[in-house]
Amino acid sequence: MPAPGLIGTAVDDEPSHDTTGTKSAETIQWPLAYRIQPPSTEQRSLQAYSFESQRPPPRRWWSHNLYRGPQNKEVQILYSRTKAQSEVFARQFLNESVVGFDMEWPWNDYKKHDLQNKIGLIQVATEDKIALFHIGLHAGTTVDEIIAPSLKQLIESPTISKLGVSILHADFSRLRKYFRLNPKGAFELSHLYRLVKFGGRKPDLVSTKLVSLAQLVEDQLGHPLWKGDVRTSNWSKPLSQEQIKYAAGDAYAGYMLYHCMNFKRLHMRPVPPIPIHADRYLSYKMSGITPIRLAESPDAPPLTTSEEFFGVEMMDSVPAKTRTQAQKTQTTKPKVPVEPLDDLSQALYDELVQCRATLAKKAAIPAYQIASNSMLNALARERPLNASSMLLLKGIGSVHQQKFGDTWLEVITRFVTTNNSKPLASASSRIPTETSSIPPEEPAANPPRTPRRARKRGQMAGQDSTDSSPAFGTPPSRTPELHTGLSFTMAETRIVGEGNDSEETTISFNSQDTLPDLDFGSQPRRTSPRLKRKRDESPTRDAVHSASQQLQQLTQPDENTLQSPSATTTSKVQSDQIHQISPVKPPTEPPTLELKIARNKLMAFSRRVTCKLTSRPPNAPPIVTEHTLDLIIKTAPRTQDDLERIPGIDSFLLACEQTATDLLASIIRFAPAQS
């Protein structure tokens, strides 16, 4: 049966829907002049069109546009874009005893710190008018410059009840936190709903437990409330018609719900007092479920509680302290004591802390956003000398390594070179180098070696190592040599033949640190070490010189690369005649077929999301740029934090939020993880 207020005439409450405790013979009339008008044309069911379905016709969505006053007058919308307009409109509500109240703010308000981004819109409603105070368009930087005096008086008045759902914990809490206002008069509609709904038949359920606005509207006003994607739209820009309709409806719903449910309360026998303002006995942080406090009026001293009035004990009573302690007992884990640092590691830790403070000062952000103390502790304890070793430490990912990895490595390398007279055996054995990324149990990936070279390597195993650095007094690293027999330096290219005394290469065939643009074909077969590699035709002198120049250009690091710390850059203090080549990747790498397919899938996914945005104009720019798609494929984010750090991703995230689409799950499904 329709709820009271669906039409203008009086209706009877059925026993199953008796929320007032009265007899079914009693009639309850809609108490206001503005009421929902019946539809002009009656909706017909499918059976009326010769279908066999018994499904009833669909119901209309609830909206303030459904209400009409005397002489078919519509509800007036007052939309203010400036502080001066807000002052004129706010004065019209200062003599009201109750007003519907609601607020909207951008979904990404944490990204900006200006006041206009913390509260975008304030809605106030009475029976015949709804005012929309667009704070996001008001000029100024302080509260006095943005909030009109009459609007501030309306918010802080304890005699004007502000009606809403979760108004104390959401709206009033934000006004106190960001605007330093002292809002009063928060009337929680959930309290009145539970008093009317359960007071006559199950009074043990009358409590401060919240109920959603959509449930209140459908249960009391007879129509479902539309909560679409417009609620996550940008409220800091001029409002569209959809935004105005949505914002005005929430505030007007609070006003109509109050009068509908309060009229039912007055018909209860005995008539219970009305709930008092929530800010008079509840905290601004949502915690605990307690009995409702009742009084003669919402701003009067409380007379009793729901438990005392009905003589029952609440069924769902959860004190705030008890629930908090229970949650702490379940979630708290014992802390593992951290092993103290030795004197040398503590000195390095102090230098890392100073470096972190410098980075934070330049970026104008807190130091903890650069790196945590535990991360610096791990860096000081392990002392990684290259990017691969750093990524093995807990808490350091690829994004952090790209931003600050070179800085940490520079500090660690300088510290090790200056203070360490002997290598750290434990650190050297635990942390692998960039040039030894292939495990030893894969012999097929290593280049073929002659027995004489193996014996020579065994003899010098205790004397030389790729982990050595000039600071430890060990010989410099040898010139890298590819498995094809082509050894290269910075100035020449030569063929390694029989009897060559060159040491074994430190770069494995399958390592990602090798030069990807040098294509020497598939892995060579294991042949006799005395056989030279056959060539169909000897290259000319010009050709050899050209190849050498190309190879030198690919492998020659720039000045910034030479200054960046790594395991191989420690050889820069060697003699200038010995050129050490770091395994540097070329600036650009052609994408693989797998990456191209993943990018095309993401492009198609973005177009599907765009098609779901019905209000988006056809000539609008794409929701994601080509450059942002390339960054998504390149970084392959696996967490929401990594995804939000990608430049230009905000519009894509907002579109997916509006269409209820999980962007991160789609990226994980399409984009392959980077090794």
Tell me what the structure shows.
It contains 23 helices and 15 strands. By secondary structure, it is of the alpha+beta class. The protein has four domains: 71-313, 2-Layer Sandwich (Nucleotidyltransferase, domain 5), CATH 3.30.420; 343-430, HRDC domain (DNA polymerase, domain 1, Orthogonal Bundle); 454-524 and 538-573, no CATH class; 593-670. Strands 5-8-7-6-9-10 form a six-stranded mixed sheet. The protein has a three-stranded antiparallel sheet with strand order 11-12-13. Helix 11 packs across helix 12 (373-382), helix 11 (343-363) packs across helix 14 and helix 19 packs across helix 20. Residues 18-27, 462-471, 505-514, 546-580 have a biased composition (Polar residues).
Give the overall shape, derived from the CA principal axes: globular
- Any idea how many domains? 4
Number of helices in the DSSP assignment: 23
Q: Report how far apart the termini are.
A: 62 Å
Radius of gyration of CA atoms, rounded to a whole number: 36 Å
Sheet having the most strands = 6 strands, mixed
Q: Label the structural class.
A: alpha+beta
- CATH topology term of the largest domain: Nucleotidyltransferase, domain 5
Percentage of residues in helical conformation: 25-40%
Question: Can you identify the CATH class of the largest domain?
Answer: Alpha Beta
Low-confidence stretches: 1-26, 421-445, 447-472, 485-522, 527-532, 538-548, 558-586
Give the strand order, joined by hyphens, for the main sheet: 5-8-7-6-9-10
Q: What's the architecture of the largest domain in CATH terms?
A: 2-Layer Sandwich
CATH superfamily of the largest domain: Ribonuclease H-like superfamily/Ribonuclease H
Taken as a percent bin, the fraction of beta residues is 5-15%
Mean pLDDT: 74
Question: Based on DSSP secondary structure assignment, what is the total number of beta strands?
Answer: 15
GO molecular function: 3'-5' exonuclease activity; nucleic acid binding; nucleotide binding
Region (Disordered): 1-28, 422-486, 502-591
Protein name: HRDC domain-containing protein
Biased composition (Pro residues): 440-449
